[in-house]
Design brief:
Structural class: alpha/beta
Domain Putative Flp pilus-assembly TadG-like N-terminal: 13-57
Helix content: 25-40%
InterPro entries: Tad_N
Radius of gyration: 33 Å
Keywords: Membrane, Transmembrane, Transmembrane helix
Organism: Neorhizobium alkalisoli
Oligomer: single chain
Largest sheet: 6 strands, mixed
Distance between the termini: 75 Å
Number of domains: 2
Protein name: Putative Flp pilus-assembly TadE/G-like protein
CATH architecture of the largest domain: 3-Layer(aba) Sandwich
Shape: elongated
């Protein structure tokens, strides 16, 4: 009996026994930490991939970027959604870790457009297998996450657009290859340019020169490049108007040309429509832009296109610097320039980035990027729609002064002048109205840019 009591009350060996009893929950707790750490690490990896997929689906590098920018109606953008899923899966497969099947990974993508704002949401769900927690009957740790990226103007991003339309004589070329051939066949000198020659009297009436090929073009319904520019500008403003139906007072538009008639000497811009919320009146004004007139051939030495003057002049028209766009009192500001890219002006005693012609200081050159920098330094964005400069057969000015000197720099100089992503080129047989609207969508998107929001 005493022996049993001694066994019963003997505490030697209890530490080992208690340790054995406590070891199971202790291992479970440590295992839970390890399993959750592994799951958290994988979720962090997947969140990084989700961020990249959300951004990549709507970024400029996306295979479907052009389709996204061309979308002008609200709703889902299916091609971008499919592209986003591909981006996610490709990046995950390129990363170290479990396979899709191992974690039962499911990925979804939603890309939508609303009032000019492109929103991309990349989401995932997965079940991460456990190791130690299986002891406690838990085989998986569920994880999930989503990333949202946006591009474009929020519903209340305020922007002022200053349209600068090149209506100088070089824009009097027939609009398409077919129209060029038709105008050449109609003119006695086989010319594809509609030269608008004449003068305005003191009472404001215009006296057209009887030899003006502009008369031939108008009598035969030939469409000129300046006509297409005017129509495209009208379409652009109507697009702005449709966007404002979703968010009133978001945009204001002003429009300018290089002048109703040429000066000798000097250069200017004409205000077609002052900065306004009234898109109906602005649209009508832009649609009525006409080709610049000259009093006679070789008026002002035929040097009638000064980009330096026009950009400096429109800079004076813009009050203050470009704002954040967050409020109506701090609107973003964008100069929207439509041109064929060749400056042709008198610069006696100045510098010429191209070719000199004659003895009066006529300079033909690509745009001078310093003129653009002055605006950019004020946080004013520059958007360029380049209507490809089209030389004609037997054009001595092109052959001798442009082709071998700076033809390859016309587009690149404009692109350098443009703010990031705000340069488009449209050829004579391309759809200028569509290009104009695309550039507007891109310009409006540039105000807030591409960014992750959560």
């Amino acid at each position: 009996m005493q022996s049993l009591k001694r066994v019963w009350f003997d505490e030697s060996g209890n530490f080992g026994l208690l340790t054995a009893i406590l070891l199971v929950p202790l291992i479970g707790a440590i295992g839970m930490i390890l399993d959750y750490s592994q799951a958290y690490s994988l979720r962090t990896q997947l969140m990084g991939i989700a961020d990249a997929a959300a951004l990549g689906a709507i970024s400029e590098g996306s295979p479907y970027y052009k389709s996204i920018q061309a979308t002008t109606t609200d709703g889902p953008i299916d091609v971008a959604e499919a592209d986003g899923v591909k981006l996610f899966t490709a990046q995950y497969r390129g990363s170290a870790g479990a396979t899709f099947a191992d974690i039962d990974l499911k990925v979804t993508m939603q890309v939508t457009r609303k009032s000019g704002l492109i929103t991309s949401v990349s989401s995932f769900n997965a079940m991460v297998p456990t190791t130690f927690m299986r002891i406690l009957g838990s085989d998986f740790v569920p994880i999930s996450g989503s990333a949202t990226a946006k591009a474009g103007g929020e519903a209340k991003t305020y922007t002022d657009f200053y349209m600068l339309l090149d209506n100088t004589p070089s824009m009097g070329i027939a609009a398409t290859t077919k129209e060029m051939s038709r105008l050449k066949s109609l003119t006695s000198n086989n010319c594809a340019f509609a030269c608008h020659i004449g003068y305005y009297t003191n009472n404001g009436s215009f006296k057209e020169d009887a030899n003006s090929t502009y008369i031939v073009a108008r009598q035969n319904g030939v469409t000129l490049r300046t006509d297409v520019v005017a129509k495209a500008a009208e379409a652009l403003i109507n697009k702005v108007k449709s966007e404002m139906a979703n968010s009133a007072n978001q945009y204001r538009v002003a429009a300018y040309s290089f002048g109703k008639y040429a000066l000798e000497p000097g250069y200017r811009i004409d205000k077609i429509s002052g900065l306004t919320l009234d898109m109906t009146s602005a649209s009508k004004a832009a649609a009525n832009v006409q080709l610049m007139t000259t009093d006679h051939d070789w008026f002002n030495d035929n040097a009638l296109t000064s980009f330096d003057t026009s950009l400096a002049a429109i800079g004076k028209e813009i009050s203050g610097n470009g704002g954040s766009g967050d409020t109506a009192g701090s609107p973003a500001k964008i100069v929207y320039f439509v041109t064929d890219g060749v400056a042709d002006s008198l610069k006696p005693g100045g510098n010429c980035g191209g070719s000199w012609e004659g003895n009066k200081g006529r300079c033909l050159e690509p745009i001078d990027t310093k003129s653009c920098k002055a605006l950019k330094d004020r946080n004013i964005k520059l958007a360029f729609l380049y209507t490809t400069y089209t030389p004609l057969d037997g054009d001595g000015t092109w052959d001798g002064l442009i082709k071998k000197v700076f033809a390859d720099r016309i587009a690149t100089a404009l692109k350098e002048c443009a703010s990031t992503g705000l340069f488009f080129e449209v050829g004579p047989d391309d759809d200028m109205q569509a290009a104009m609207v695309k550039l507007f969508v891109q310009s409006a998107a540039s105000v807030s840019g591409l960014r992750l929001t959560q």
